[in-house]
Amino acid sequence: MSNLEQTLSIIKPDAVERNLTEEIKKIFNKNSLNIKDSKKLHVTKDEAAEFYRVHQSKPFYNDLCAYLSSGPIVVMILEGENAISTYRKLMGATDPKDAEENTIRKLYGLSIDKNSVHGSDSLENAKKEINFFFKN
Ligand code: CMP
């Protein structure tokens, strides 16, 4: 049975800075994740704090918000069959040193903070995250 989903992707500042956006978009296309919408923006620290609010009790929260707001990012809506799990597999483990070969984080991630990409972890969060960046 078909299970068409949408998920949110963020190309983080470390990857945008190294001009990896087009390479990463090619990976999405090769893996049947269609880019439905895409924009480049630079969030404020307050916006990053709101986006990552689920992590507010974590010790890394402050650094995470400072990092996401440190430079331009590219946010995209990806659509495809089982897009949420497909994209999470393609990203690889959060820490690039634990990520499998040929995953985006293994190929491009620099550290657990500068791990090049973000992806929604559930259908509920995908809806919230898409709405956060692509409100009509
Ligand atoms: P992301 O998928 O964007 O979601 C939250 C981010 O927090 C995660 O990627 C990491 O870049 C960052 N982070 C920093 N430290 C940790 C940690 N110890 N565990 C999980 N995520 C971390």
Architecture overview:
With 136 residues, the protein is an alpha+beta fold. The protein has one domain: Alpha-Beta Plaits, CATH 3.30.70. Helix content is 40%, strand content 21%. The protein has 7 helices and 4 strands, in the order E-H-H-E-H-H-E-H-H-E-H. It has helices at 13-17, 21-30, 45-51, 61-68, 83-91, 104-108, 123-133, and strands at 4-11, 34-41, 73-81, 117-119. It has a 4-stranded antiparallel beta sheet, sandwiched between helices. Helix 3 crosses helix 4. The chain is globular and about 40 Å long. The termini are far apart. Bound molecules: adenosine-3',5'-cyclic-monophosphate. Adenosine-3',5'-cyclic-monophosphate binds at residues 55, 60, 64, 94, 112-113, 115, 118. Adenosine-3',5'-cyclic-monophosphate (CMP) binds next to loops.
The biggest beta sheet, please? 4 strands, antiparallel
Multimerization state: single chain
The SSE order reads EHHEHHEHHEH
Fraction in beta strands:
15-25%
How widely separated are the two ends? 30 Å
Count of runs of 4 or more consecutive helical residues: 7
Shape, please? globular
In total, the number of domains comes to: 1
Task: Specify the structural class.
Answer: alpha+beta
Ligand kinds:
adenosine-3',5'-cyclic-monophosphate
CATH class descriptor name: Alpha Beta
Strand tally:
4
Strand arrangement across the biggest beta sheet: 2-3-1-4
CATH superfamily: Nucleoside diphosphate kinase-like domain
CATH topology, by name, is Alpha-Beta Plaits
Helix proportion of residues, in percent?
40-55%
Radius of gyration, in angstroms, nearest whole number: 14 Å
Query: Residue ranges: pLDDT <50 for 5 or more in a row?
Result: none
